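ok posting inputs for the N,N-dimethyl-L-histidine job
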Amino acid sequence: MNPSVTMQQGFSRARRVFLRDVIAGLRSTPKQLPCKYFYDRRGSELFDRICLLDEYYLTRAELALMDQFAPEMGAQIGAGAMLVEYGSGSSVKTRYLLDGLPDPVAYVPVDISGDHLQQTAGELARDYPRIEILPVCADFTKDFALPRSRQPASHAAVYFPGSTIGNFLPGEAVALLRRITRMCGTGGGLLIGIDLKKSIPTIEAAYNDRLGVTAEFNLNLLRHINRELGADFDLDQFFHQARYNAELGRVEMHLISRRAQTVTLGGETVEFEPGETICTEHSHKYTVDEFAAVASAAGLTLRREWTTEKREFAVLHFAVLQHAG
Ligand code: AVI
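and the output
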């Protein structure tokens, strides 16, 4: 019997999709893997460590903006909102916003990781008894329905921190922002964190830290594939590389094969040449004007911006002006 058939029969639907995505990525030229698969348990822990690194300025800069300007951001979003957070994780930045929002009706954390979501939702319900907490376990890149709150909301506002939008290609970013526009409707809004263009050494250092945590995070993707899909990547035979592509305004993260090698997964074999790369992530950097143009293509109008003094990072508020339906 074909071993890939036996293997796939024993797989859950999520694993079959994972296997299909990995095989398609490794069959394409150049080879690539979707960055959403970084986040198994270890990958999420490594990402939390990245956020604390000296070189990774993004998290510190965004937290400083939230700490200083959350009341202004809250006033800009307006009273009576249903706040919907995309990729909520531990909702650390959200607490600043919930403290600054005038009379929010409900908070809807949206995350693909159900366990994490329930735990965070429980903690928030305890700490914010006056706000209805309505967790939604979903992939925010696909359509999902907003829950109904006990008290009707005057409008919906999406909070999308972390510069995660930078991990989408510009066309994908427009598509995702269009979903947000459609979901919020006229009168709705978006508060989003954006990593700004800056000196190349500063950007490259953030993705090539001295302690090697980002390298470990990148290589852990292969470990995740080995464990979940029964692949046989030899982690010692690949190394991490992150470079800024100035033309496309993005960091490109790669895993590079140290030698000619063959990897097996799902009953298929994939050949690597010495020095051949797998692109594992794009992290786009924008100017405020560039991002405003991307958002405008999705029906969003820039209303306010908050930027760190050194112009490292921005939090932007957009309004859905007129949504055609
Ligand atoms: C989640 N995302 C915004 C991070 C970034 O900076 O693009 C992921 C990351 N990759 C390497 N370091 C951090």
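notes: The pocket of N,N-dimethyl-L-histidine is lined by residues 50, 58, 162-164, 166-167, 207, 214, 281, 283 (CB under 6 Å). Confidence is low (pLDDT under 50) at residues 1-8.
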